[in-house]
Amino acid sequence: MSQFTYSRLSHFLRISANKFSVLRTGTEIKPGPACCVQFTRCQRSVDSKALQERQKQQMAKGLPRQKPITGVKQVIVVASGKGGVGKSTTAVNLALGLIANDPLKSVGLLDADVYGPSIPKLMNLKGNPELNDNNLMLPLTNYGVPCMSMGFLVDDVAPIVWRGLMVMSAIEKLLRQVDWGFLDYLVVDMPPGTGDVQLSISQNIPVAGAVIVSTPQDIALLDARRGAEMFKKVNVPVLGLVQNMSVFQCPNCNHQTHIFGSDGARQLADTLGVKLLGDVPLHLNIREMSDRGQPVVVSSPDSPEAEAYRKVAAAVVQRLEEVNS
């Protein structure tokens, strides 16, 4: 309706300008159409600003108010624009690395990937969560890390064929109906992409920062950039990028090969103006221990790959301190 009104107003002014060839301004006579064009441009600018302001007000009304998770000090989300880049493995070893660096810290792990939950396998956990007296689910715990996942609530091979509203309801239950106790950090393993789950979590709870995981490959970096830009739009600090599968070292001759390219994530971090949190190598031990439910940070703590994850965890803590200062 406002566009229609504005169109009619512009049309009326053009007719008036043609009918009256001159407009009086003080004692001078100036051509009418030029003044008319200036007026319409000014009117268009005013209308555009007013429309944008109204849209912002309407969007603000529709957004949910952020409510902290009871007992949780800081939430760290681990995300990627694309699947298959080692995001879940990174999330698990990040949580364990935080504890390895500071055993006094309490860390929890939330699997928000409803369609493809990986935490039960990676953390070697099975079973259904019990309920406490307040009817809240109690997380399953291994390696000192309490975990919650949709994988605990469905059969291992059962496909989760849900529409968006059901997924949002499940995420709300995983966020609000779990007794986490008291945690210094809650690491959230996000699903790949930039969809409903990412927006729902970012808008419903205060997120201390996001960690973006990518391989150095160009096709993965494209989606990693989209993920980083999404978090910036919803005002979630991007703590930095993790360059996963950065290099492969032959176990026989120790020759290093950059299978997915070299320094792609480092270059993207520079472009985005964020920090590269660390490099994690492509190593057979990481894959084997993950499949056994024995993450390398706890099963091979003295290995170079475990040290890589601990360095990432230390960099994350440092970035959180910078963001909060």
UniProtKB/TrEMBL annotation:
Pfam families: ParA. Iron-sulfur cluster transfer protein involved in the assembly of the mitochondrial membrane respiratory chain NADH dehydrogenase (Complex I). May deliver one or more Fe-S clusters to complex I subunits. The keyword Ligase does not apply. InterPro entries: Mrp-like_CS, Mrp/NBP35_ATP-bd, NUBPL-like, P-loop_NTPase, YlxH/NBP35. It comes from Eleginops maclovinus (Patagonian blennie). The keyword Chloroplast does not apply. Belongs to the Mrp/NBP35 ATP-binding proteins family. It is found in: Mitochondrion. GO terms for molecular function: 4 iron, 4 sulfur cluster binding; ATP binding; ATP-dependent FeS chaperone activity; metal ion binding. One of its GO terms (biological process) is mitochondrial respiratory chain complex I assembly. Its cofactor is [4Fe-4S] cluster. One of its GO terms (cellular component) is mitochondrial matrix. It comes from the Eukaryota. Keywords: 4Fe-4S, ATP-binding, Iron, Iron-sulfur, Metal-binding, Mitochondrion, Nucleotide-binding, Transit peptide. This is Iron-sulfur cluster transfer protein NUBPL. Its main location: mitochondrion.
